[in-house]
Amino acid sequence: MLAREVPTQVTNLAVLARASSRLQRLAEPRVRKVTCCYERGFLESVIRPVSKLAQEAIASPRTLELARAKRLHPDYVPARDAEWPVTKAAKHAVATPRLVELAQPCKRPPISLAQFNPDAFTVKETAKRATCSARVQDLARPIKR
Q1: pLDDT at 43
Q2: What is the pTM of this model?
Q3: What Cα–Cα distance (Å) separates residue 90 from each residue in 95, 103, 104?
Q4: For residue 32, which phi and psi values (nearest 5 degrees)?
Q5: What CA–CA distances, in Å, run from 144 to 13, 135, 141?
């Protein structure tokens, strides 16, 4: 197929127009100072400078108290490891007949037989002879508005 023509026509004045110096200045992107990152210097340099007074500061007793980790509850039991040794009783356990019966997988018919149903689209005789109640007929009638 041939290339389609552009549906809008640009006038000659618009093609030859030149932007003013103010428009050119406004079109330039703003130069913002990057504040989220720090200058990378040599490897031993600090990332963020710390003042001498901050380095020589001594924490108050209250700050030290707040900095201490909370103690665990006396009744706390830590979580068990993901692996633990199997007990001797579990190694010598024998399954009951009922447990063996429950461990057997479900017996299902093959998919080819389950999906093919020759009576899928036939209406049963009892359904043909069914009659609906007066209440169902009343509910089936559309509402007159």
Answers
A1: 66
A2: 0.25
A3: 11, 17, 21
A4: -110, 145
A5: 66, 17, 9
